[in-house]
UniProtKB/TrEMBL annotation:
Pfam families: Macro. It comes from Flavobacterium rhizosphaerae. PANTHER family: GANGLIOSIDE INDUCED DIFFERENTIATION ASSOCIATED PROTEIN 2-RELATED, MACRO DOMAIN-CONTAINING PROTEIN. GO terms for molecular function: O-acetyl-ADP-ribose deacetylase activity. This is O-acetyl-ADP-ribose deacetylase.
């Protein structure tokens, strides 16, 4: 099994231990992949998100939290918040890398072996897709170099543009 794999499709269909959600800081759901995950997973995911909100008041950009995956085939959803791409570009790049890295840290803490990522921040948060793909791949590869827990990371691309960018980079 390759440590890194690329798939074109819908992340809600993945049978990995965890799927990652490109959430927003409120953790209350939104559009894009966030909406798709909450729709397909059912209300158990939102209930867990609300518990986390009550405990820590949402999720800061670049951080990650974990919930049940409800009715999804995955066991867990790791919700991370990517940066909105405006203002200081260098800072946004560091925050995007944090979102990938902190999701992997949460995965390891929860004995997750297989994890699927969407293309965080490349939808309504408008991060340039090429740069986002480079950061995603570099951050995941660097993490896997020093980790013995994760068996496989899937990059799940929903749109053709991201898919072909990842194909070239991987
Ligand atoms: P963000 O707010 O982080 O930009 P979006 O959900 O708007 O989040 O977009 C992030 C990426 O998720 C986009 O590249 C979009 O094509 C992709 N996406 C949307 N729906 C799905 C899905 N069901 N599975 C996987 N990726 C998806």
């Amino acid at each position: 099994m390759d440590k890194i794999a690329l798939i074109k499709g819908d992340i809600t269909k993945m049978h990995t231990d965890a799927i990652v959600n490109a959430a927003n800081s409120s953790l209350l759901g939104g559009g894009g992949v966030d909406g798709a995950i909450h729709r397909a997973g059912g209300k158990a995911i939102l209930e867990d998100c609300i518990k986390i909100r009550n405990r820590q008041g949402g999720c800061p950009t670049g951080e990650a939290v974990i919930t049940t995956a409800g009715n999804l085939p995955a066991k867990y959803v790791i919700h991370t918040v990517g940066p909105v791409y405006n203002g200081d570009k260098k800072e946004k790049e560091l925050l995007l890398a944090n979102a990938y890295r902190n999701s992997l840290i949460v995965a390891v803490e929860n004995s997750i072996k297989t994890i699927a990522f969407p293309n965080i921040s490349t939808g309504v948060y408008h991060f340039p897709k090429q740069r986002a793909a480079e950061i995603a791949i570099t951050t995941v590869k660097d993490f896997l170099k020093n980790d013995a827990h994760i068996d496989q990371v899937l990059f799940v691309c929903f749109d053709e543009e991201n898919y072909s960018l990842y194909q070239t980079l991987l």
